[in-house]
Amino acid sequence: MAKELKDLTKSDDNYSRWYNELVVKAGLAETSAVRGCMVIKPYGYAIWEKMHDVLDKMFKETGHQNAYFPLFIPKSFFSKEAHHVEGFAKECAVVTHYRLKNDPHGNGIVVDPDAKLEEELIVRPTSETIIWNTYKNWIQSYRDLPILCNQWANVVRWEMRTRLFLRTAEFLWQEGHTAHATREEAIAEAEKMINVYRDFAENWMSLPVIVGHKSPNERFAGAEDTLTIEALMQDGKALQSGTSHFLGQNFAKAFDVQFVNKEGKRDYVWATSWGVSTRLMGALIMAHSDNNGLVLPPKLAPIQVVMVPIYKTEEQLKAIVERFEAIAAQLKAKGISVKIDDRDNVRPGFKFSEYELKGVPVRLAMGGRDMENNTVELVRRDTLEKETVSQEGLVELVEKLMTDIQQNIFKKAYDYRQSMITKVDTWEEFKRVLDEKGGFISAHWDGTVETEVAIKDATKATIRCIPFDVEEEEGKCIFTGKPSHRRVLFARSY
Amino acid sequence: MAKELKDLTKSDDNYSRWYNELVVKAGLAETSAVRGCMVIKPYGYAIWEKMHDVLDKMFKETGHQNAYFPLFIPKSFFSKEAHHVEGFAKECAVVTHYRLKNDPHGNGIVVDPDAKLEEELIVRPTSETIIWNTYKNWIQSYRDLPILCNQWANVVRWEMRTRLFLRTAEFLWQEGHTAHATREEAIAEAEKMINVYRDFAENWMSLPVIVGHKSPNERFAGAEDTLTIEALMQDGKALQSGTSHFLGQNFAKAFDVQFVNKEGKRDYVWATSWGVSTRLMGALIMAHSDNNGLVLPPKLAPIQVVMVPIYKTEEQLKAIVERFEAIAAQLKAKGISVKIDDRDNVRPGFKFSEYELKGVPVRLAMGGRDMENNTVELVRRDTLEKETVSQEGLVELVEKLMTDIQQNIFKKAYDYRQSMITKVDTWEEFKRVLDEKGGFISAHWDGTVETEVAIKDATKATIRCIPFDVEEEEGKCIFTGKPSHRRVLFARSY
C-alpha cells in the first residue's frame, strides 16, 4: 500500500490518470471483464449506500414511494415519443435471444438460434417509456394523482469511452417518475427535486453546485425543461451532477395516459422525471481529493475515525487497544463510526498512508508516551494538520471535528468554484479563459441553438446552465454579437 | 375496492387464482408489458424494502459487506465450470447488439446490424462466474481471506411459465459470495447463512421453515452441498425460500483462484454462495393470507395501524381526527407506523375492506359514541376479532398486539405445518397422502439419484430436504425397498 500510494500520479501531472488510479487504489471500483462495466468494491459501495440511504430518506420525506419496473423495454416503446427517440442516444444493449444451448460440436455453449425474440428488448437506458406505459393503467381520475414514484435501479448506455463512475456502460441510479393533474404542480415538483439534489450535494457531499435550467440543446430528450445542478471539479471542468425534468404532457400523449379532472373533463397527465447516479461518486472524488488520496466529507465516510496503535510489545499493544476501545465506545454512542486497526503485519506508517488514501476524516494514533501522558496524536485528513491532544475531552473534540471538516471542505470547494467563475465579454477572451484558466465562464448568448452548437464545435464548451439566480442584464452574444438579456454559464465538462 | 374485494376468488375454490388476484388487488405487483417481468408496486415494494433492510442488517452483523458486480456475463464464462454449465438452466436473456438506429424506411427504430458484439453477453441469472473471475485479482494470500461480499441485484431467468413473485423472468434478490482459506470455514459460513435465513423467516416473516440439505439431484449446479429453508404454503405445497451453497473449490478451479496459505503453500480458494429473492414475497403472502386478503406480520407491515374516523359532520370528523392524531403521535414514538385515513370520498366500510385486503395488522375506528365514551373499536387482522376498548392504555395494548399478532400467525402456520408432516412407509400410502392430503411426507429413500428422479417422474414430488435434525433410523426405501438410514422430506412444491 505504501508503495502503491507512492505510485499515485500527482493530480497536477495528469489529472485524469490521478483520478483513475485513485479510484482503484482506494478500493472504490475497478474495471470488469465486461467492456465498460465496473465492479463497485466494498469501500466504494459503502459510500454509495450512504448516498442511497440519505437520498431515499429525503425522497420519502417529500412524499415519494419506491417501486420497481422491468429491466427490459420493448423496442417499439422507444419510437412512441418523437423527441425521445430522436434525441436519446441509440447506444443500447439489445436482447435478441432467450436461450443458450450446448454446442453440438462440444465447444461450450452457443446461442440457440431457435430462441429468437419476436420483438427485441432493450436493456433500459432510462425508464420513462415503460413507466408511462404502466401508469396508463393506474390513472383514471384526478383522485389517482399525483403519483410520486421513485426506483433504484441499474441502467445501461453503451458508451464508447468509459471512465469509472463518470461514464460506464452500466451504472446505478435512482429515477423518480411523477404524474400530476396540472402543469403548475409538475413544474413545482421538478423544482422541488432539483432543490433536494442541491441540498444533498451541498450538505452531505460538501459539494457546492449551481442550480439552473439547461439550454434547449442540452435538455433531456422529451423534456420541456431540464433543471440541473452543476459542480466544478478541481481541474476546472464542470460535472452535471443531477437533473430534474419537466416533461409536459409528452409521455402522457405518447402512451395515451388521460385522466378526468375535477371539472369532469379529460386531459393528458403532466409528468416529471429526475435522477442522480453513481456519477455522484466521481463528483465526490474529484471535488475534494488530493495527492495523498481521497478526502471524504464525514457525513458520507464509511469510517469516520481510525485508530492506530504504536507499540513495541504485545503487552503494550493490548493496553493501547483497550484504551482505544473505551474511546471508540464513547464515539459510537454519539453515532460516529470507528475502526481500530490492530493488524500486526504492517507498520503504522503503512496504515497512515492507507487511511489517507481512503480519505478517513480523523486519524488517532497512540503510543507508549501518549499512554503515560493521557494524550493522543490527532490528524485531520482535510488539512493533514497534526496535533497532540489530551484524551480528556477527546470525544467532544472529534465530534466537533466532524462538523468542522464537513464545513471546511465545502468552503474550500466553494471558494475555488467562486474563483473559477469568470465574466467574459468577447469571443477572444472566451477562448483564452477557457484554455488558460478553465472553470465556468459567465457570458452573453443570443438564445439560439445554432449559436450554442457553433460554440461547442469551436471550443468543446457547452452551456452548463442558465442559473436560477441570474440577473437580467442587457448585453451582446459573445459569438454572434446579437442582443442578449442575461448571462449564462459555459464550461468544458465531463 | 369493496367490489374488487367481493370479487376475490376464495382460496378453497382456486388457490392459484386466489393468489394471483390477491397480489394484484392488494397493490403488491402486476404483470408488465414485457413477458414474464413484473412491476412491483409501491405497497409491495415497501414490504420488500423492509425485508431488504432487516436482512442487510443481519448480513452486516455477521461480517459481510455489500459490493456490486456487472449485470452482464461473457458467454464463455458459463462454460468454465463444468457442472455449472451442465446443470444450470439455459433460459437466459442474451445481448447480441449494442446499438439501435433509425429505420432507413422511416418505421421507427431498428437494431443496427453493424453493432454486433464479438462475444454475446448474458444477463446474469446468478453471478458466481463473473464474481470468481473478479476474485482472482483480489486474492493472493491467506491474509486476503475471507472475502465476505453480498450484492443486492436484479437477475434474469427466462422462465416459460411465470407467476408474480414466485417465478418471474426478472426478479430482485441478494447473492452472497464468500471466499475462504479452508474447507471447514466455508462449510461453517454456508451453515451460518442458512441459519440467518431461518431466523429471518421465523422471527420476521412468521414463517416456520425446515432447514436441511438438498439431495444431490436438487443441488445448485456447481455446489458440493446445498442447504435450504423449506416452508409450507396453505395449499399443502412446499416452497423453497432460501438456499446456501458450499461450492467447494469448484469455482476457484474454474477461474484459477489460488492463494498462498499460512504454511506458504498454494491452494485453491473455498467458496460459498447464498441467496433469497422476491420469491419471499410469495411465501409471505401464501403462508398467512385468507379470503379477506393479506395477513402481514407486524414486523414487515408497511402500515401497522390504520385509523378510520366514523363521522356524520365535518366538525365531528375534525374532532375525531384530532383525537386520532394524538394517539398516532404516541404510537409513532414507540416506533409503530400509523396511517389515518380521512378520505371523504369513500365510506368506512370500503376502507375496512381495503385495509383487510392490504393486511394491516390493527384497525382502529372511532365514532361519535366512542368520542363520548373515550373508547375505540379495535380489530386485529389475524383473527378479525372486534372489540371496543378504552382509549386509556390503548397505546400499550396496541404495542402488545404487535407482538401477539406476530407470534400468533407464526403459531398458526407452525401448527398447520406440523399437522402436514406425515410419516409414510409404503409407496401406495405415499401416493395417497400426496394426492389426498399434501404437505411434507417423511419417508425412507435409498439415497440414489435414480430413485429420486423416478419418484419425481411418477408423482411430481421431490425431496425438499434432508433435515438437519433428522434422526438416524433404519428402514426401507418406499420406492425400491432398499435399505435406508434416515427419513427425508418429500413434497410437491412451487
Runs of chain A with pLDDT <50, length 5+? none
* Biggest beta sheet attributes of chain A: 12 strands, mixed
Total E-strand runs of chain A: 26
What proportion strand of chain A? 25-35%
Count of helical regions of chain A: 14
Average predicted confidence as pLDDT of chain A:
96
Molecular shape of chain A: globular
Oligomer designation:
homodimer
Give me the Rg of chain A, rounded: 26 Å
The computed structural class of chain A is alpha+beta
Determine the most extensive contact between two protein chains: A-B, 64 and 64 residues
The N- to C-terminal Cα distance of chain A equals 29 Å
The helical percent of chain A reads 25-40%
Summary, kept brief:
Chain A is of the alpha+beta class.
Attribute tags:
homodimer, 494 residues, alpha+beta, twelve-stranded mixed sheet, five-stranded mixed sheet, 26 strands
Describe this entry's structure for a reader.
The structure is a homodimer of 494-residue chains. In chain A, 35% of the residues lie in helices and 28% in strands. Chain A is of the alpha+beta class and 494 residues long. Chain A has 14 helices and 26 strands. The longest helix of chain A is centred in the last third of the chain and has 26 residues, at 394-419. In chain A, strands 3, 9, 10, 11, 12, 13, 16, 22, 23, 24, 25 and 26 form a twelve-stranded mixed sheet that branches. Chain A has a five-stranded mixed sheet with strand order 18-17-19-20-21, sandwiched between helices. β5 of chain A pairs antiparallel with β5 of chain B.
